[in-house]
Amino acid sequence: MAARKKKAAKKRKAKKAAPDGDLLRGRFAGGIHPALDRINRSFEVDQRMWPQDIAGSIAHATMLGAQGIVTKAAARRMVRGLQAVAAEFADGSFRATPADEDIHMAVERRLTELIGADGARLHTGRSRNDQVATDLRLYLASASESIVTWVRQVQRALLALAARDGELILPFYTHLQRAQPVVLGHVLLAYIEMLERDLAAAHYELDECPLGAGAGAGTSLPIDRRLTARLLGFKRPSPNSLEAVSSRADAARLVGGFAALAVTLSRVGGDLVLWSSREFGFVRLGDAVSTGSSIMPQKRNPDGAELLRAKATRVTGALQRLYEVQRGLPMGYFKDLQEDKTALFEAEDALEEMLEVAEAMLQNITFDGDRMRAAVDEPLGFMLATEAADFLVRKGVPFREAHEAVGALVREAEAQGVGLDGLALERFKAAHGKFDRSVFGVLTADGAVRARRALGGPSPANVRRQVSRWAKRLGVEA
Ligand code: ARG
Q1: How do strand 169-174 and strand 177-183 relate by DSSP bridges?
Q2: Are 222 and 111 in contact (CB under 8 A)?
Q3: Which of 67, 201, 220, 361 is deepest in the core (most CB within 10 A)?
Q4: Which CATH superfamily is domain 25-121 in?
Q5: For ligand 1, is residue 129 a contact (CB within 6 Å)?
Q6: Model confidence pLDDT, tens digit, residues 299-316
């Protein structure tokens, strides 16, 4: 009787171990269906969090030892074993097995192979739910840091151009219609400022540590969450175990910052595409950042700039997915949340690629100051009409009245096929009695930009000041 029972138990055990060798299937009679196994596993995706997973496990093992939940000796063996697993990941010798459903199972499985029985104590008082939430936040911190570093590089590339060619005069556009003259440095600094604003959302600081929240309802074991939080660089343990395992708000917030950056880079791309066209001709892309055509031998295409525009959709799309996987989830952990990593990594990878190519393109362009200037000076662009109106305002004329008078002058000049400065003084006087010959003095592009000294404006003096301010902030020579 007893022998038969033993035999049956042995049979069950044999069935359990094969073929997936899964540590989690103790309650099942058979192996997992291959289709479920494929959709369920995430190791391919989340293995990139190995440094965070191992750091979290080292902190946890250390705490278990400090609290006497495992012996100090066992904790030491776990920590050393985890360091050995880390070394395998670092040198590429780590070999995954079919049992490695995700990075957490992989690390634990390998640890137990390396150190034996003590490895089986690592998962005491924790769950993969608090583990993955902890890994994720640690990962966000490092992803944020490397993105910020890249953005600084792009800002430096923009600044170098502003310092080199910042005083070239070109039109700025509204509705893609020539509007008023500005200097190039003002445009480049605008992108530096935009990136800076985006960066505010792309900084991530560790605050609340989910580790110790268990599956979502904590643990009865005497863990020390303050210790693990401190060991991992968090400010404090998260105060609610359910929130700790259920929220992906931090990831969504950071990817929101990534999306903002990507959208700004896409706009840099938009300008480069436009400006490198022969119609504009403001920019020439260097050979290394130009692409050819398979049929038209003459082509010098701005593929990199176009992809800056299009790849931004990966980041904005990933942001949407991050919110969508959380939308409607009842409180608690769900496997839906596993898809957060796919979205986060896709956003991070796309953005990093974009930052890299943006820097490369900015370092390999030259500006055509003559083409820019010609666009400003083209008489029928009437880019100095606002200057003429401001001239009247300085003589006490209400702006609306000035606007109307200059509008009439533009109509007249257009009909004659000349610029405003091609009209006779009498025409000005007829349009408004406050005009005198000194109006011709304000009708030059150089004068117009020089005069735009109001705070934040494009006067060369303002732009020079901003260039040196940014040089200081970005730690470069102006
Ligand atoms: N791979 C999982 C994830 O990324 C880890 C947590 C799994 N927890 C669970 N109870 N199945 O979310």
Answers
A1: antiparallel
A2: no
A3: 361
A4: Fumarase/aspartase (N-terminal domain) (1.10.275.10)
A5: yes
A6: 889 999 999 999 999 999
